[in-house]
Specification:
The chain is built from eight helices and eleven strands. It has 266 residues and is of the alpha/beta class. It has one domain: P-loop containing nucleotide triphosphate hydrolases (Rossmann fold, 3-Layer(aba) Sandwich). A hairpin with a 5-residue loop joins β1 and β2. The N terminus is likely disordered.
Length: 266
């Protein structure tokens, strides 16, 4: 494992563990006979307990990188390691098991199963797991209570608002206690109020120790992270470290992040 030392505001030192690491990561696509190198020899580390935000202009490789880090897509060359193990060499069944049990994913399009109710949608990733059914039911009830969705338990997706559906999707992503929660533009399909509610959820679960890696183009979403990685042409062009997010300093934080992004050409 690799470690870095950071100073808290109170002067205490903490040790951060590398949970995901890439080595010379490349991802290319072929379109009309031409090779498009989206991610180029990228070396990076994601630290356990961080709220990491990935930003960049359109076409910079943000979502491509997120899918590679989470095992949702194959890499072209290079390596992605999770907890020290190379996941790029895993067979399909092995990577599916890893994604199911240790990596949660929240999509912009939400992707709930329309003919299942809230409870059943959250339950779905637990099928064929060895977890005790009563334990799972208790976890679902606890997640619904945390997300203020207890009264929505039997509703179907088409009976809910966009923000409520995204909260259900977050519950579904958390049900197997993932080590890392990935999110690809999780507020992109929501209005301002719904988006803020969902961001509050991400902030709160991160404060409880959940590692989060989020791609966003939204400044108000980006300021929730304690680390912002800026991509340009498939490479890291900036890495901003921040303290833990607090509502009272949101405006000041926006100014800091906006200045960083502007310097990078955002």
């Amino acid at each position: 494992m690799n470690y870095i030392k950071l100073k808290l505001r109170k002067g205490d030192k903490i040790m951060k563990t590398t949970i995901i690491k890439t080595d010379l990561l490349c991802k290319s696509f072929i379109s009309d006979g031409e090779v498009n190198n989206v991610i180029k020899n990228l070396d990076m580390e994601i630290y356990e307990g961080d709220f990491t935000v990935i930003m960049g202009s359109s076409g910079s490789g943000k979502s491509t990188l997120l899918y590679a880090l989470s095992g949702m897509d194959d890499v072209t060359t290079g390596k992605v390691s999770f907890e020290g193990a190379d996941i790029t060499i895993l067979k399909e069944k092995e990577i599916s098991k890893l994604r199911k049990m240790k990596l949660g994913f929240v999509f912009q399009g939400i992707n709930l199963i329309p003919n299942l109710n809230v409870y059943e949608n959250i339950l779905s990733p637990t099928y064929k797991t060895k977890t005790d059914r009563k334990e799972i039911e208790g976890k679902i009830d606890a997640l619904l209570e945390k997300m203020e969705l207890t009264s929505q338990k039997k509703k179907f997706p088409n009976q809910m608002s966009g923000g409520q559906k995204q909260k259900v999707a977050i519950c579904r992503a958390l049900i197997n206690n993932p080590k890392v929660l990935f999110a690809d533009e999780p507020t992109g399909a929501l209005n301002s109020s719904q988006g803020q509610n969902v961001l509050n959820v991400f902030t709160n679960i991160n404060r409880e120790g959940q590692s989060v890696v989020m791609v966003t183009h939204d400044l108000k979403a980006a300021i929730r992270g304690n680390r912002i990685i800026y991509l340009k042409d498939g490479r890291i062009d900036g890495d901003l470290k921040l303290e833990e997010y607090e509502d009272g300093i949101a405006t000041q934080r926006e100014e800091i992040v906006y200045k960083f992004l502007k310097e990078k050409g955002w």
